[in-house]
Specification:
The chain is an alpha/beta fold. The protein has a single domain, classed as Purple Acid Phosphatase, chain A, domain 2 (4-Layer Sandwich). It is built from eight helices and ten strands. The chain has a five-stranded mixed β-sheet with strand order 3-2-1-9-10. A hairpin with a 3-residue loop joins β9 and β10.
């Protein structure tokens, strides 16, 4: 069984399509998304429509989905220092969404479990405290993810846009990296494949998929939504002028 793994799409529809095409060629039969479908990028509604079409999907909400569900900005746990432009950018994202997409977001759990070929997989956006609030990346060791469930053979997560795939004492911790925010790599969409068989157990492969990031940047410029300059600099690796 092959499972396509994606996370942190961040409204980057062109990157998502490129990754879906690549994972289909790899004959993935199931899909996992570890949250942050929306936020930052230019096409949130198209991303959610496309994700809802994926067969056998296991998905959880990320902090950007919680912005919609719980309000902006102070009501969202552990998200600090959000300026007015960032808040308005989040509101812009939310205004693009159809009723169907909002309903999809509202039903997403914070944690999900599935079993494939006798192996248990936990999916979550990131490590949480006892009140199920996301812990800041700089204050949380990824080892905490392992402690969340002693029963999980594989823990799939996101939030930290950097890739980290490790097997520790027989437990896999899989963050394949942000699909939609290439940062300094500029034109790479990240994804992964978890392959599980009863004979050979768990194997994880990382994928870097090239796509037309220049068109995404043009879309951002055309929309001219709040914080566009900062978004291009920090999430797309564009040097400020």
């Amino acid at each position: 069984m092959k499972i396509g793994v994606i996370t942190d799409i961040h409204a980057n529809y062109l990157a998502l399509e490129a990754v879906i095409d690549a994972l289909k060629k790899e004959q993935c039969e199931q899909w996992i998304c570890a949250g942050d479908f929306i936020g930052i990028g230019p096409r949130p509604e198209e991303v959610l429509r496309r994700v809802r079409q994926l067969p056998n999907l296991t998905a959880v909400c990320g902090n950007h989905e919680l912005y919609l569900r719980q309000g902006l900005p102070s009501q969202v746990p552990n998200e600090e220092g959000m300026g007015e432009e960032e808040i308005e950018g989040q509101r812009w994202q939310q205004r693009q969404l159809s009723a169907e997409s909002v309903a999809f977001i509202n039903q997403l759990p914070k944690k999900a479990m599935l079993e494939v070929e006798g192996k248990k997989i936990m999916v979550l956006h990131y490590a949480m405290d006892q009140e199920q609030r996301y812990l800041p990346i700089e204050e949380s060791s990824r080892m905490r993810l392992l402690a969340l469930s002693e029963q999980a053979d594989v823990i799939v997560y996101g939030h930290d846009h950097c890739r980290s795939i490790r097997c520790i004492h027989g437990h896999w911790l899989v963050c394949c990296g942000s699909l939609g925010c290439p940062a300094s790599e500029k034109d790479v969409a990240r994804a992964g494949i978890i392959e599980i068989t009863r004979e050979s157990g768990v194997h994880v492969k990382a994928l870097d998929i090239r796509y037309n990031v220049k068109q995404v940047l043009k879309d951002i410029d055309a929309l001219a939504y709040p914080s566009a300059g900062e978004i291009k600099q920090f999430f797309y690796g564009v040097n400020p002028r």
